[in-house]
Design a protein that fits this description.
This protein is α/β, with parallel strands linked by helices. The protein is built from 28 helices and 8 strands. An 8-stranded parallel barrel has the order 1-2-3-4-5-6-7-8, surrounded by 8 helices. α21 links the parallel β4 and β5.
């Protein structure tokens, strides 16, 4: 334990002790110290003494004890996060051009250069890279956002405290703020009055997307551009290496609270949060870019885009007159008005239009020899964020169990008079029936009404996916099939998509059990051999995503068997896809613990078979893993 970490832990414990002395029950602080003393050395006799001590407490006293000990752990966790930030900063400061920090983007680019990769080859490699962390809800993370924010504020204050060693007045101010935060943590309920709902889970993920993740993405671009410039002495446009996905609001498998309405709400909340981010940053740019056309000549393209007849329906006449000599502010005011309208009307303005407008502003500044303002004003960062986050922040996946699809398809075929016992058919007959029905729907529409509640609910979700794709294709990710074990499982989803008039998403089989992982290569080969499914894959750009389940395979076969089989399956599936001329991407359903595939992501990538690496990768980020990796911008940046 470093001196800094030890000092921060002692400092936070001392503050908590003061709080307990002021507001805790009588004798409470003495009980805490006694228990800590009993359990510090891990001796059997001490544990017996602790057990006896706890047995004598009332239920209310035990609740108070749990809250205080939990709070101590949370405070220690914040001190440890600050230690991670400090260690990373020291390693970055110690890095040199010839010896970059280990496991950094600079080290990667330096290594490629040393191995003889040309700048053009590097550019081709970067364009292939597509990393998609996927945020998922999980019951192991149940802390309220109020507490998460205060814990983050404590960590950020500790960082500032470390940076203010020579300023005594500033240190005193920060210490007082930390005391207030610890007090508020103690007097705030940890448990919600009501069970965490889907909307709260969505808002929880948006908290990280609009804070630390939003801030970290441009820093990755800065790291990459700086490394390329240093090694190759060339400027490079930032390729979109990272995009986020989410399951929250779309993961229906086993959660009856996730319905079509929640999926709509998730899409709406993501869109609103994204647009609000742009509104805030465009307003900040307006305050900064006070460039006057009476001082410098402004490019014609920018002038043409803000002709009064073009913008009068969005920008008030008095603003056009007032800003007539400040074209950048006038353009930004127009963008802000378009963003305001986009909140009210889905088709009013979209992400590609925003990106084009920001590129026009950046290009105009470059043309006026004001390139440094593109970076210093935040315009360069906003342009990167617009390309990564669009108007959706994170693309929403939908997941459902294969058994649900089978029941709904059976009801639909029965009502259509095509088959009254679909579920009992042999697999070959299911495939033949589904293939014929899917092909027939190209000319004969399938009317969707009069179904059971379960079927109508699923069909409503399919309709929601179609509507979302028409509004913003990037807002929808893939459709994931839990327990996919047969060709008919993917054809059932294709049948539902075709019936709902939606073919805009990738169909992703999820292989979870030992048996399914063993059969996965043969199943993929059979899927690609089916003409109807192969036509769908071709329509999706000859691309197939495959999801691998770590948690269930561990539970099913044990850690060693699961690990070996996951490795073998990836290698064999890769060969099947390449033989069929199909690009692919693996989606790793990793949990937080080692038993659920958890651990450091970069080491997990290194542990995959070489022939499975095709430039793209997805992995789940779950529950408490999200709050650790994305609690602070510095840790989020280092993780990415």
């Amino acid at each position: 334990m470093s001196n800094d970490l030890q000092h921060n832990i002692q400092f936070l414990n001392a503050i908590l002790t003061d709080v307990l002395e002021r507001f805790g029950p009588s004798e409470h602080l003495h009980r805490i110290e006694k228990l800590l003393h009993c359990t510090r050395d891990g001796e059997a006799n001490d544990f017996q003494e602790a057990k006896k001590h706890i047995t004598d407490l009332s239920l209310d006293e035990i609740r108070e004890l749990i809250k205080t000990i939990t709070l101590r752990f949370h405070l220690r966790n914040q001190a440890e996060k600050v230690e991670i930030v400090n260690v990373n900063r020291k390693r970055l400061q110690a890095a040199t051009r010839f010896q970059p920090r280990r496991e950094s983007i600079a080290e990667a680019i330096t290594t490629l250069k040393a191995r003889g990769y040309s700048f053009d080859t590097l550019q081709r490699i970067l364009k292939r890279i597509e990393i998609q962390p996927t945020l998922t809800a999980h019951p192991t993370e149940s802390r309220r956002r109020t507490l998460l924010r205060r814990q983050r504020d404590i960590a950020e204050s500790l960082v500032l405290l470390h940076e203010s060693e020579s300023n005594l007045n500033k240190r005193k101010q920060i210490e007082d703020e930390i005391r207030q935060l610890v007090l508020l943590l103690y007097i705030t309920d940890e448990v919600r009055v009501e069970r965490l709902g889907v909307l709260e889970e969505i808002e929880g993920s948006l908290y990280f997307l609009t804070n630390s993740i939003w801030q970290a993405i441009p820093r990755i671009a800065t790291d990459l551009n700086a490394a390329i410039k240093q090694c190759y002495h060339m400027e490079s446009d930032y390729p979109t290496l990272l995009r986020y996905r989410t399951w929250i609001g779309g993961d229906r498998d086993g959660n009856p609270l996730v319905n079509a309405e929640m999926t709509k709400q998730s899409l709406h909340l993501h869109r609103r949060a994204a647009i609000q981010q742009y509104q805030e940053h465009v307003s900040a740019l307006m305050r900064l870019l006070s460039v006057s056309d009476r001082r410098l000549d402004v490019p014609g393209a920018l002038r043409d885009s803000i002709q009064p007849e073009r913008i009068r329906d969005i920008v008030p006449e008095k603003s056009i007159v007032r800003l007539r000599h400040e074209p950048f502010r006038l353009k930004l005011l127009h963008i802000r008005g378009l963003l305001d309208a986009a909140l009210e009307s889905d088709g009013a303005y979209d992400a590609p239009q925003l990106i084009a407008d920001l590129e026009l502003l950046a290009g105009s500044l470059q043309e006026m020899n004001l390139g440094e303002l593109v970076r210093s004003s935040g315009l360069a960062n906003l342009l990167i964020q617009a390309k990564v986050f669009g108007f959706h922040l994170a693309a929403l996946d939908v997941r459902q169990h294969s058994a649900v699809h089978e029941r709904v398809v059976q009801e639909m075929l029965n009502k259509k008079g095509l088959c009254d016992k679909y579920s009992s058919l042999p697999e070959t007959e299911k495939i033949e029936l589904l293939s014929r029905s899917i092909e027939r729907m190209e000319t004969e529409p399938f009317f969707l009404d009069g179904f059971s509640k379960e079927s109508q609910e699923l069909l409503d979700v399919i309709g929601t996916i179609g509507s979302a794709c028409r509004q913003d294709r990037a807002a929808i990710g893939g459709y994931i099939i839990s327990m996919a074990s047969a060709v008919s499982d993917v054809l059932e989803v294709l049948f539902l998509m075709r019936a709902g008039g939606s073919q805009c998403v990738d169909i992703v089989p999820l292989f979870e059990t030992i048996e399914d992982l063993s059969n996965a290569p043969r199943l993929l080969k059979a899927m690609f051999a089916n003409p109807v499914y192969r036509a769908h894959v071709k329509h999706r750009g000859d691309f197939q995503e495959i999801m691998l389940g770590y948690s269930d395979s561990n539970k099913d076969g044990g850690y060693l068997m699961s690990g070996c089989l996951l490795y073998t399956a990836q290698s064999q599936i890769s060969r099947v896809c390449r033989a069929g001329g199909i690009d692919f991407r693996f989606f790793h359903g990793r949990g937080g613990t080692v038993g659920r595939g958890g651990g450091r992501a970069n080491r997990a990538i290194h542990a995959t078979p070489p022939d499975s690496r095709d430039g793209g990768i997805r992995m789940t980020e779950q529950g408490e893993v999200i709050s650790f990796r994305y609690a602070l911008p510095d840790i989020a940046h280092r993780h990415l």
